[in-house]
């Protein structure tokens, strides 16, 4: 006995089939090709070519293209000539005949002794160590002593205290500026002095951790040492 395939199908599968043929989002229609009507205020496009006889430039453009191609060929040929001259100069210098100075003199005359240029006497370069005058000063010699400091080397002399433009003595007492401050009762430390000023002092001390050490406070009367 044949059984229908939808006999054992649930109501949910009957009502909501998958895939759903109803689109979830409405698809917009195709936009029109012409979206703007004829507007007389739009600037008219310039024609790419002028049809009058006075503005034709085809002969000049053709001549310019021909000269540009000729210039490109000349540059390429000049590069080839330069490479060949470099190879020939190396072969001439490596040749066993004559001295190196004579060869350099000939190459110098061929390169720089041209029409319109003033001829100069070729002067060969000489290393500073081969000159008869000698080096003007000795070169710096760096040894291990320049980068190493002996930890056992101590200073055996005292540091003299400065006597010119001496800093005022450091004191922790505050002198009132007016007479009324002498008779005003103290109310204790404020919130600023307890929090913000204290934190600022801590930051200042931490920033001065690697600074130059302050002079010693254990000074004795008449002592010249710091």
From TrEMBL:
Name of the protein in its database record: Uncharacterized protein
């Amino acid at each position: 006995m044949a059984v229908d395939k939808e006999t054992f199908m649930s109501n949910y599968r009957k009502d909501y089939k998958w895939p759903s043929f109803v689109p979830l989002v409405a698809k917009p229609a195709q936009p029109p090709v012409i979206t703007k009507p004829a507007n007389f205020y739009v600037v008219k496009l310039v024609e790419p070519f002028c049809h009058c006889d006075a503005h034709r430039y085809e002969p000049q453009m053709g001549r310019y293209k021909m000269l540009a191609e000729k210039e490109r060929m000349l540059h390429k040929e000049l590069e080839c000539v330069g490479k060949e001259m470099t190879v020939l100069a190396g072969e001439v210098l490596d040749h066993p005949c004559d001295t190196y100075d004579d060869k350099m003199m000939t190459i110098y005359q061929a390169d720089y002794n041209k029409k319109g240029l003033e001829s100069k006497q070729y002067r060969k370069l000489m290393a500073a160590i081969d000159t008869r005058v000698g080096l003007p000063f000795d070169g710096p010699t760096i040894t291990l002593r320049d980068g190493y400091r002996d930890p056992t080397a101590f200073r055996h002399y005292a540091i003299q205290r400065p006597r010119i433009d001496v800093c005022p003595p450091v004191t922790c007492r505050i002198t009132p500026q007016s007479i009324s401050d002498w008779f005003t009762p103290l109310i204790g430390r404020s919130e600023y002095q307890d929090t913000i000023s204290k934190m600022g002092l801590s930051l200042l001390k931490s920033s001065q951790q690697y600074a130059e050490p302050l002079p010693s406070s254990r000074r004795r009367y008449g002592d010249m040492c710091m």
